[in-house]
């Protein structure tokens, strides 16, 4: 643990008022279990501190956070921190993200020249006053600057930073004009200030002779001249009225544009169901989760629909400064709040490299959310069946084997929970992801038990569902094994558990594999993509054997998950160093029948 950083954080916590418990304790590891704290890879320093919405109040105690000299990300959004900007933050030379919006800071903005690495600065929605320091233009790596909703005054400095992509200076008391270098930003970035219009008639230049604008001495005018003046006057009046109308229109336009910017961000969970969120209920985080965000963050985050599943819709939510999570809005939770919480507590305690950690959950009467890490590569289902044609990267055997091994280990670990009684209930390729080592990682644990039962016609999950399962809430460990078997067959064949052929005939993968294996004993079940890899045929046959054993009709005849871990791991071990030469093997792999001696699937049990 970084001892000095830990002490700095403990000093900070001791001296600042806070209403939410941070569960930072001297006894626990700062890098592994402190909420909101992230360390570098060798755990020698704290590099990020994210404490949004933690109920922090009052000024930041001097000489506390400033001792975190390696910190790069500082996010204290949505607290009630007051006082002036801490001068000792100048010590935080490595800051790349300074994120302090929605607090009660006052006084002048800091001198920005002390931070060379800043990429994002958000000091919006505070009470900062005084001018925008010209030093801001020294931040040559800056991409986003938000100083909106403060009381800043004076002219806008010429911030000529090519990397700057986002700017918001709205709702301050800024005066003067928008400098040329910032004209590329939309008008809402400057809305709500006292800026003079670009086209305003400039005042007389100081060098101009005093009489230059004085009217010439009036002469008596002739009648045609008077007529001309009247007509000219009318035209002028008309032009003025027209101009006035254009101005009013563009002002209205600006007013419309301003909220529109925020509305755009609001393609979020909040917009979709704001009335469902009960502020009295908080997101419940699990120990060891160093992500820190509050419900407000989640609701404000721009969200993208990842897909609609059996239990609800899953969103990819991009929280501030590069944190992305997957949020699932559960559709029909039938269990009580207590039952739901108990189930989530069991799930939240599961920590295993092949199990996707549940980061947080939320329960209110009308809204239930579960939050997981977001997996960039997508699910095994997406990897197997997504992107066909030229753009496709084939999923090689090595990767598929690691997916199977990881999934087996993950499910076995899940089954060992709750005194060996815990059930996943929804094993399928779209719930398996790849962990950082490329092994399968199981997600969506234990949800089936708290949701309303899915009637049999719901086909999405049907291909994975064991024949004896009629009520999805009553899944068993043996039915998880069946689903795991289907996953193995899916990895081997590259086919979805239920798919249609060209002739629109619905094919049930388990039955199809069984019929091919029974009737022809050929390697035709294997995904063509796999047949290009040499020396893997024996391993594929072994996996096929294991898969078939898992999908037998009688639950009690299926192997136990703990045994499956061993057998799936042995697929590789058994064949290592015992490979025929690649040439011969690859040539034979496309159409060689699997030897009749190879027992694939217990012939007595007809799978479903
Ligand atoms: N943590 C995550 N990271 C990346 N993608 C995810 C994540 N969680 C879910 N997804 C993807 O989002 C989509 C919708 O997922 P969701 O879990 O809602 O449905 P599903 O897996 O198809 O069905 P079910 O609800 O039965 O699990 C799927 O394609 C899934 O792979």
UniProtKB/TrEMBL annotation:
Keyword Phosphoprotein: yes
Any one annotated GO CC term: membrane
Protein kinase domain ranges (all copies): 300-571
Transmembrane segments: 225-246
A Pfam family: LRRNT_2
Gene3D superfamilies reported for this sequence: Phosphorylase Kinase, domain 1, Ribonuclease Inhibitor, Transferase(Phosphotransferase) domain 1
GO MF annotation terms: ATP binding; protein kinase activity
Full protein name: Probable inactive receptor kinase At4g23740
Species assigned in the record: Durio zibethinus
Taxonomic placement: Eukaryota, Viridiplantae, Streptophyta, Embryophyta, Tracheophyta
């Amino acid at each position: 643990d970084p001892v000095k950083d830990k002490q700095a954080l403990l000093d900070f916590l001791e001296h600042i008022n806070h209403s939410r418990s941070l569960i930072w304790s001297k006894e626990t590891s700062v890098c592994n279990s402190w909420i909101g704290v992230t360390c570098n890879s060798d755990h020698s320093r704290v590099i990020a501190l994210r404490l949004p919405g933690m109920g922090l109040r009052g000024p930041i105690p001097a000489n506390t956070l400033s001792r975190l000299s390696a910190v790069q990300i500082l996010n204290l959004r949505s607290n009630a921190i007051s006082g002036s900007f801490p001068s000792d933050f100048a010590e935080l030379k490595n800051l790349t993200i300074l994120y302090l919006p929605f607090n009660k800071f006052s006084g002048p903005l800091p001198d920005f020249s002390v931070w060379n690495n800043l990429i994002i600065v958000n000091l919006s929605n505070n009470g900062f006053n005084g001018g925008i320091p010209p030093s801001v233009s020294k931040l040559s790596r800056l991409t986003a600057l938000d100083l909106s909703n403060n009381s800043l005054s004076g002219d806008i400095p010429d911030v000529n930073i090519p990397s700057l992509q986002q700017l918001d200076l709205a709702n301050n008391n800024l005066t003067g004009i928008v400098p040329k270098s910032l004209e590329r930003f939309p008008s809402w970035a400057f809305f709500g200030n006292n800026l003079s219009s670009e086209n305003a008639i400039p005042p007389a230049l100081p060098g101009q002779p005093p009489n230059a604008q004085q009217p010439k001495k009036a002469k008596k005018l002739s009648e045609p001249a008077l007529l001309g003046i009247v007509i000219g006057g009318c035209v002028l009046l008309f032009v003025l009225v027209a101009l006035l109308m254009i101005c009013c229109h563009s002002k209205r336009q600006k007013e419309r544009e301003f909220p529109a910017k925020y509305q755009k961000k609001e393609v979020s969970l909040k917009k979709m169901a704001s009335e469902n969120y009960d502020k009295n209920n908080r997101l419940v985080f699990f120990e060891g989760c160093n992500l820190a965000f509050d419900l407000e963050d989640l609701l404000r985050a721009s969200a993208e629909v990842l897909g609609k599943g059996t239990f609800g819709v899953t969103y990819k939510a991009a929280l501030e400064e590069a944190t992305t999570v997957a949020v699932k809005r559960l559709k029909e939770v039938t269990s009580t709040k207590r039952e739901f919480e108990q189930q989530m507590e069991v799930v939240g305690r599961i920590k295993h490299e092949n199990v996707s950690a549940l980061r947080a959950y939320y329960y209110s009467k009308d809204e239930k959310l579960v939050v997981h890490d977001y997996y960039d590569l997508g699910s095994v289902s997406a990897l197997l069946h997504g992107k066909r044609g030229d753009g496709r990267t084939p999923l090689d055997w090595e990767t598929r084997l690691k997916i199977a091994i990881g999934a087996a280990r993950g499910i076995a670990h899940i089954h060992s929970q709750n005194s060996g009684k815990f059930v996943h209930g929804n094993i399928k390729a779209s719930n398996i992801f790849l962990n950082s080592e490329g092994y399968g990682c199981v997600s969506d644990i234990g949800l089936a038990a708290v949701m309303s039962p899915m009637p049999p016609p719901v086909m999405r999950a049907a291909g994975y569902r064991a024949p004896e399962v009629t009520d999805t809430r009553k899944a068993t460990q043996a039915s998880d094994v069946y689903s795991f078997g289907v996953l193995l067959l899916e990895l081997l064949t590259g086919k979805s558990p239920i798919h249609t052929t060209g002739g629109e005939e619905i094919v049930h993968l388990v039955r199809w594999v069984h019929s091919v294996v029974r009737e022809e004993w050929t390697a035709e079940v294997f995904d063509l993509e796999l047949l290009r890899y040499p020396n893997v045929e024996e391993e594929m046959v072994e996996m096929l054997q294991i898969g078939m054993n898992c999908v037998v009709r009688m639950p009690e005849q299926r192997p136990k998950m703990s045994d499956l871990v061993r057998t799936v791991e042995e697929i590789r071990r058994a064949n290592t160093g015992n490979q025929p030469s690649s040439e011969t093997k690859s040539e034979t792999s496309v159409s060689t029948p699997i030897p009749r001696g190879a027992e694939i699937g217990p012939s007595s049990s007809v799978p479903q």
